[in-house]
């Protein structure tokens, strides 16, 4: 059961629960005593070698089990771990119910033993991302990205000396050079290209069979996002985009940690001939509103690890799905004018 944590003194003064929560979490990054107190009653997402622990709900969906840190502590001690493992917990945030959230990788413990004690299974993130349908997906992605960042930044790239993390896990410092390292993300542009009637989707050979997505690409050093967008569309499918409009953004844990910025773009209906760069994409095609509408209705495209037959789209919590859904709404709105 969740035990809501009382956020001290801020709510009355700020008048907004959101403001209080944001300021409280910000304080936890620097106030080690407050962090230790928050950890006592926190909510913990567990990972094993970067795979999140998920539980099947009675309704058949998947979500991370609700674990209180004190319960996790007892389980870890029962499995022979000492208190130092809990110190590797990383602050994730604070829920709307004022529950402070942490994550912890228990990769040094026996996987099956933790699964049995906690009631769940550690599932690789790639697979987990097709199983998670609730609002927990971004939190799981953030936990995985932060845990990986700590694992791969334990040495200073200037001195080669070990770096030390702060208790919240929001930064690492090299005591020898004084360099402070903060978690990093790579900027990526994702764009849904339309010719007014159809939208353009592509697939990489590494995608599960049948899945198509919006075009995406990493920003090169020195580029604006508009330049990245035009370059990626030109490189991957040989088209020149005309109008560009921003939609939304998301953090994405693949391949490591990306900051995805989502756009809509149009091409002239007279220049729609696609020329696919097969070093980047296996295929790219125009899809009609009818095709997209039925693909959006494919439920559980990777049920029991097997891809659905035919053509299907990334999961609901992927920004590609959001852009595609937005496009269908615009198309329908246009056709009723
Ligand atoms: N959330 C979503 O809905 C969604 C949908 C599609 C793609 N994506 C993500 O977008 C990312 C970028 O798309 P893409 O693979 O088509 O990019 P891309 O077209 O730029 O091609 C990938 C290549 O770019 C190079 N590259 C340059 N900078 C890089 C960096 N910082 N990290 C890794 N590789 C870099 C590598 O050679 C790599 O093989 C993918 O990692 C994918 O996970 C997310
Ligand atoms: Mg690409």
Structure characterization notes:
The chain has 337 residues and is of the alpha+beta class. Helix content is 31%, strand content 23%. It has helices at 10-14, 17-28, 32-40, 69-78, 111-118, 125-131, 137-152, 225-237, 289-296, 319-335, and strands spanning 43-48, 51-56, 62-63, 67-68, 90-94, 100-105, 121-122, 164-165, 172-173, 180-181, 186-194, 199-203, 215-218, 244-252, 258-266, 283-287. The strands form three sheets. Strands 1, 2, 3, 4, 5, 6 and 7 form a seven-stranded mixed sheet that branches. A hairpin with a 6-residue loop joins β8 (164-165) and β9 (172-173). It is globular and about 65 Å long. Residues 1-6 and 8-14 have low confidence and may be disordered. Bound molecules: nicotinamide-adenine-dinucleotide and magnesium ion.
Uncertain stretches of 5 or more adjacent residues: 1-6, 8-14
Distance between the termini: 50 Å
Oligomer: single chain
Structural class: alpha+beta
H-E order: HHHEEEEHEEHEHHEEEEEEHEEEHH
Strand content: 15-25%
Total number of helices: 10
Which cofactors or ions or other ligands sit in this model?
nicotinamide-adenine-dinucleotide, magnesium ion
Q: Tell me, briefly, the overall form.
A: globular
Q: Output mean pLDDT.
A: 92
What value does the Rg take, in angstroms? 22 Å
The total of beta strands comes to: 16
Q: Tell me roughly what share of residues is in helical segments.
A: 25-40%
Largest sheet: 7 strands, mixed
Topology readout:
Elements: H1 10-14, H2 17-28, H3 32-40, E1 43-48, E2 51-56, E3 62-63, E4 67-68, H4 69-78, E5 90-94, E6 100-105, H5 111-118, E7 121-122, H6 125-131, H7 137-152, E8 164-165, E9 172-173, E10 180-181, E11 186-194, E12 199-203, E13 215-218, H8 225-237, E14 244-252, E15 258-266, E16 283-287, H9 289-296, H10 319-335
Parallel strand pairs: 1-6, 11-15
Antiparallel strand pairs: 1-2, 1-4, 2-3, 2-7, 5-6, 8-9, 9-10, 11-12, 11-13, 12-16, 14-15
Helix pairs in contact: 9-10
Bound molecules: nicotinamide-adenine-dinucleotide and magnesium ion.
Nicotinamide-adenine-dinucleotide (NAD) binds at residues 186, 188, 190, 213, 216-218, 232, 252, 254-255, 258, 260, 280, 314, 318-320.
